Amino acid sequence: MSGLSIANKTFLESVLNMTSGYVLDFSNSSFANFFRDLNVDIYDAESYPGFGDSKANRVRALWRSGSDTDVAGSLHALAEYLSAKKDAGALEGEITDEQIRRMHDIAQSLSDPRPEDVMTPLGDSVNASFTTEATVAANKINIEIHEDIYNHIDQYLINGDYFHAVEESYKLVREQLREKTGSERASDAFAPSNQEKIFGHAPRSPVEKDFYEGVKFLNMAIQFLRNEKAHAPASPLEPNLALHYISLASLAYDLITRYVSDEVIAEIEDLIRAKRRSLSATAFYRVFESGRWLDSITLPDDLRSSSVRRVLKEKWLAEAEFTHSYDYSNIMLMRLQVIAEELSKADLEDLIERPTLDFRGNDQEAGMLEFMQYMYERYPEVRSSKVDQWIENKLREYA
């Protein structure tokens, strides 16, 4: 599995004009030959399974299942192809030199992974690249506090009780360690026997070993800072210092909740498949459009964590395709309904642009309208004019 992030995939799909199932101006034969020259059989469904047979879906399958080496080589080659077409004045659409340069940069990042990328998933294990965002402008950094921590301490922040906001954020990190390992002491929780529970596997390289140690010592530092406060009476805490402490807790929490085990993922996906198969088509749409089917199954407690939901969002968006069959499309949308609160406007706009025709030309999209209506009802903040128009066209088509 390659280490391409969702952000980079979104950028690349736009540059390569993949929204309608095509890739640039390639025909089927020139597309196959292009990748064959790179020693990649792009239509090998065993090596690159899932998605579908369109050129865009074949590239998505490569990005998901191909090695970093193969993906990086193909991105470099595609960037060079764009550059040559641009120089010859034969390029369709407007592609800038900066976009071509960024394609090379993305490819290079796969060839030379940085230390912070050591959590890139291998095999079938899934990790989020990172579940909180940070931006910088001049000397000011804006950091998103992890949702689980913020939801736990927001009332303290609103009331200006920074002492307890810090105390409770550190407590949440400690409790997460206990849930994962049975021990809340970082020195014990990060023992070699617990590394798989926290990170998914034992360290595979010296760099990864150093990373694991760094996360351990970060958690140990937080526990010492918490002990300092636990042994002192509650007293006003300077807001600026408090926010730095909370951001430290957010980082530690994020780093120990990014891994989602194969067992948890399989359990959730099996529940969804079984529920779909238990319902007739008529019964399915009746409970799907309202989301009532979710009340009839018991999902793992892990889904309470936004880290887990965001990991599943990344995985399920990458796998979501609507060219296989009605039932398959239903299952893809049921998955997304499980983590609906994590979806954005951009995610919904991407979904309505995905191919829906199978190799015989039959439309296999089923349930998308009901899904979008569900999203609009539950999460009106994700509405967009693009999806509004799509819904209006669908309702007119079905009238």
Report on the structure:
This protein has 399 residues and is mainly α. It has three domains: 6-120; 134-257, no CATH class; 262-398, no CATH class. 59% of the residues lie in helices and 3% in strands. The protein has helices at 6-15, 28-36, 55-65, 68-87, 97-111, 147-158, 162-181, 186-189, 195-199, 206-230, 239-257, 262-277, 281-288, 306-319, 326-338, 345-352, 368-378, 385-398, and strands at 126-127, 134-137, 140-143, 259-260. Strands 1-4 form a two-stranded antiparallel ribbon. α6 runs antiparallel to α7. The two termini are 43 Å apart.
What does the overall shape look like?
globular
List SSEs in N-to-C order: HHHHHEEEHHHHHHEHHHHHHH
Put simply, the count of helices is: 18
Helicity, as a percent range: 55-70%
**Order of neighbouring strands in the sheet with most strands:** 1-4
Structural class: mainly alpha
Task: Give the biggest sheet.
Answer: 2 strands, antiparallel
Strand content: under 5%
How many angstroms does the end-to-end distance come to?
A: 43 Å
What's the number of structural domains?
3
| Uncertain spans | 113-129
Number-wise, the strands total 4
Average per-residue pLDDT, rounded, comes to: 85
Compute the CA-based radius of gyration: 23 Å
Summary keywords:
about 400 residues, mainly alpha, two-stranded antiparallel ribbon, about 60% helix
List the helices and strands and how they pair.
Blueprint: H1 6-15, H2 28-36, H3 55-65, H4 68-87, H5 97-111, E1 126-127, E2 134-137, E3 140-143, H6 147-158, H7 162-181, H8 186-189, H9 195-199, H10 206-230, H11 239-257, E4 259-260, H12 262-277, H13 281-288, H14 306-319, H15 326-338, H16 345-352, H17 368-378, H18 385-398
Antiparallel strand pairs: 1-4, 2-3
Helix pairs in contact: 4-5, 6-7, 7-10, 7-11, 10-11, 12-15, 14-15
